[in-house]
Design brief:
Rossmann fold, 2 domains, about 30% helix, globular
């Protein structure tokens, strides 16, 4: 495929736009900002257990931990850490240990170790759980699973829960991927929603309660504190808020797009998605792949809103650590038009057809791939060498039904 120099220059000039640190004039106020502005009236006199991590901040970059600890009419009695920990001290997938917060002295309990759900002992002395974590809009990211099991714990032990809402960085309009088949329910797929769901955590919390998705089918005493100023079509860099890395491999708000575009594929550990290099989730390749041939094939498919640039890279850990990998850099030329989750399936299809001797499946990671897909049928279709259009058609089934199902729970224009 031949591309003019001018076209590439114009394309690259649009990529990786990212808002820097913002002033207090940010267009959007998150749930914690609304809570502060109300002088914490929703938590007045409450003994609070806070579920958060470094993304729990006010618009002027104060930690929600510190803000609640300093509030005169709130007693912060416990902290709960999801994957990566309350202060972001743990690596991806690493167990988080119980401890005591060094800054506030408040006991800190792990929700990513022996326990994923707050226990009765952890909830002793707590009236209300508060959830304040920035999500990235993909079902397999474990923070929404943590919220769901916290809601279950609140229901089981007679506690209330308050969710401080935050933007979905993939916008509130985009919905992609099949609804999870509950046979594949896991912590990387806990809810029967599409892979890209287009909802905020507050909206999801209302839907979990309203649809009876808590284990046992009950509901919890839930209050969501909505944002002000957020619109469904907003990308994160249009909010005026500062992005705090949600995990080590999601350093920028547009990393959420790349996670959706390659994260499922990366679970196989056959095609590197760039984790372990300086561009996590933004690459696709293997030591045995020709970058120029792969980029030409992918660009010839003319997928809207995405361009593939050939490149070599050497991961310093993770898949193909220390090896020279030939592959492509994924560049979004129009983020409103690109089908994010479809990018990885096109890559997998192109690699499989160019290298029939190399197996994408058949290893110990197949089960994890099925879990993040929410079905085993995507894998089976690849094994049957089904055309990519059939795979994409199957992957998109049910999204319109979900849009209708979620409608009563949407909080924003």
């Amino acid at each position: 495929m031949r591309v003019s120099v001018l076209a590439v220059v114009v394309l690259l000039s649009t990529l990786h736009s990212e808002a820097g640190a913002q002033s207090p004039d940010a267009a959007v106020r998150t749930g914690i900002d609304v809570l502060v502005a109300s002088e914490f009236k929703q938590l007045d006199g409450k003994r609070v257990g806070l579920i958060t991590n470094p993304t729990g901040i006010t618009h002027d970059l104060r930690s929600t931990v510190d803000v609640l600890h300093q509030a005169a009419n709130v007693e912060l009695v416990a902290l709960f850490g999801p994957e990566h920990g309350v202060r972001g001290e743990a690596h991806a997938g690493a167990a988080v240990e119980d401890s005591r917060d060094a800054t506030t002295g408040v006991p800190t309990y792990s929700l990513y170790g022996k326990n994923r759900k707050p226990t009765a002992e952890m909830l002793e002395g707590i009236d209300t759980l508060v959830f304040d974590i920035q999500d990235i809009g993909s079902r397999s990211y474990t923070y929404i699973s943590t919220m769901a099991v916290a809601m279950e714990a609140a229901a089981e032990h007679g506690r209330s829960i308050v969710v401080l809402d935050r933007p979905n960085p993939l916008t509130g309009t985009r919905v992609e991927g099949r609804v999870l088949d509950f046979k594949y329910k896991s912590f990387v797929g806990y809810l029967p929603i599409p892979y890209v769901h287009g909802m905020t955590v507050g909206e999801l919390a209302h839907m979990i309660n309203g649809e009876g998705w808590l284990e046992g089918g009950g509901t919890c005493d839930l209050q969501v504190i909505p944002m002000t100023g957020w619109k469904r079509a907003m990308w994160f860099d249009e909010t005026g808020l500062t992005w705090v890395p949600t995990s080590p491999h999601v350093p920028r708000s547009d990393s959420a797009l790349y996670y959706a575009a390659t994260g499922i594929m990366g679970e196989l550990h056959v095609i590197s998605e760039g984790v372990g290099y300086t561009l996590p989730f933004e690459l696709a390749g293997a030591p045995w792949t020709d970058p120029h041939g792969l980029s030409e094939v992918l660009n010839s498919r003319r997928m809207p809103g995405v361009f593939f640039r050939p490149m070599y890279y050497r991961p310093y850990y993770a898949t193909y650590s220390g090896e020279t990998v030939g592959g492509v850099q994924i560049l979004f030329s129009d983020r409103d038009k690109v089908h994010l989750t479809g990018v990885q399936f096109h890559i997998m299809d192109a690699v499989a057809r160019a290298h029939p001797d190399r197996k994408l499946f058949g290893g110990k990671r197949d089960r994890m791939f099925d879990k993040v897909c929410g079905t085993d049928l995507v894998r089976r279709m690849f094994l049957e060498r089904r055309p990519i259009k059939d795979i994409m058609s199957f992957w998109g089934e049910g999204t319109e039904d979900f849009r209708k199902q979620r409608q009563p729970y949407l909080l924003y224009e």
